[in-house]
Automatic annotation (TrEMBL):
Family in the record: Belongs to the YciB family.
InterPro entries per the UniProt record, alphabetical: YciB (IPR006008)
Domain of life assignment: Bacteria
Stretches that traverse the bilayer: 20-36, 48-69, 81-97, 109-129, 149-169, 175-197
Bilayer topology annotation: Multi-pass membrane protein
Protein's name in the database: Inner membrane-spanning protein YciB
Pfam families: IspA (PF04279)
HAMAP family named among the record's database cross-references: YciB
Role: Plays a role in cell envelope biogenesis, maintenance of cell envelope integrity and membrane homeostasis.
UniProt keyword annotations, A-Z: Cell inner membrane, Cell membrane, Membrane, Transmembrane, Transmembrane helix
GO cellular component terms listed in the entry, alphabetical order: plasma membrane
Taxonomic source organism: Paracoccus tegillarcae
Location within or outside the cell: Cell inner membrane
UniProt keyword Cell inner membrane present: yes
Length: 206
C-alpha cells in the first residue's frame, strides 16, 4: 500500500512538473510583456519594445523547458518540436530585425502546418493521430478518422483567428489572446469532442 501511494505521488509530481514545463514559458512571456509593454529597453545601443524583450526572454526559456520535457518524458511530440523550431526561427527574426510581426505570425504557420498534415492524413486515410495519442486516448479507427478531420478544421480555424487578432487588434490584445484565448479554444474543442471519445473509445484491456 505505501508503495502504491508513493507511485501515485510520484505521478502527481511528474504531472505538475510537466504542466509547468509546458505552460511556464508562455506565462514568463506574458509577465515580462506586462512589465515592459509601456517601456523602451536599450540593449547594446539598440532600442527595443517590451514585446521584443519578452520574445528575447521567451526563446531560451522555451528551449530549456523543452529540454526538461524531453528529460522528464523521454520523448517530444511533433508539435512540441515544430513549435520550438518555429519559435527560434521567427522569434529570432523578430529580435534580430526588431519587428514583432514575425513572432505574431508564428502561431499561424504552426496551425496551418498541422491543418495541412492532418488534412492529408484524412484524405489518405492515415491514422497519424492514433500513432501519437493512442496511449492516452484509445479509440477505434473510425473515431480517429473523425477526430483527424475535426482537428484539421480546428487548426485551420485557429490560424485564421490568429491572423485576424494580430492584424486588427492591439499588441496587448494579441498577447492576451495568445496566452489565454488559444488554450481556451483548444480546451473547448476537447470538451466538444467528449461524445466522440465516449462513442469510439475502447478499454485499455482490449
Amino acid at each position: 500500500m505505501p508503495d502504491k501511494r508513493r507511485d501515485e505521488m510520484s505521478k502527481t509530481s511528474s504531472g505538475k512538473l510537466k504542466a509547468l514545463l509546458e505552460y511556464g514559458p508562455l506565462l514568463v512571456f506574458f509577465v515580462v510583456f506586462l512589465l515592459l509593454r509601456d517601456r523602451t529597453v536599450s540593449i547594446m545601443g539598440q532600442d527595443y519594445s517590451g514585446f521584443i524583450v519578452a520574445t528575447l526572454v521567451f526563446i531560451p526559456v522555451l528551449v530549456l523547458s523543452t529540454l526538461g520535457l524531453w528529460r522528464l518524458t523521454g520523448r517530444l511530440s511533433p508539435m512540441q518540436i515544430a513549435t520550438l523550431v518555429l519559435v527560434i526561427v521567427f522569434g529570432g527574426l523578430s529580435v534580430w530585425l526588431n519587428d514583432p510581426r514575425f513572432f505574431k505570425i508564428k502561431p499561424t504557420i504552426i496551425y496551418v502546418l498541422f491543418a495541412g498534415l492532418l488534412g492529408f492524413a484524412y484524405l489518405a486515410d492515415k491514422h497519424w493521430l492514433e500513432a501519437v495519442l493512442s496511449e492516452a486516448l484509445p479509440m477505434r479507427a473510425e473515431g480517429w478518422r473523425k477526430l483527424t478531420l475535426r482537428m484539421a478544421l480546428m487548426f485551420l480555424g485557429l490560424a485564421i483567428a490568429n491572423e485576424i487578432v494580430w492584424r486588427t487588434m492591439s499588441e496587448t490584445n494579441w498577447v492576451y489572446f495568445k496566452t489565454f484565448g488559444l488554450p481556451l479554444l483548444l480546451f473547448v474543442f476537447l470538451m466538444g469532442n467528449a461524445g466522440l471519445f465516449k462513442a469510439y473509445g475502447i478499454e485499455r484491456d482490449e
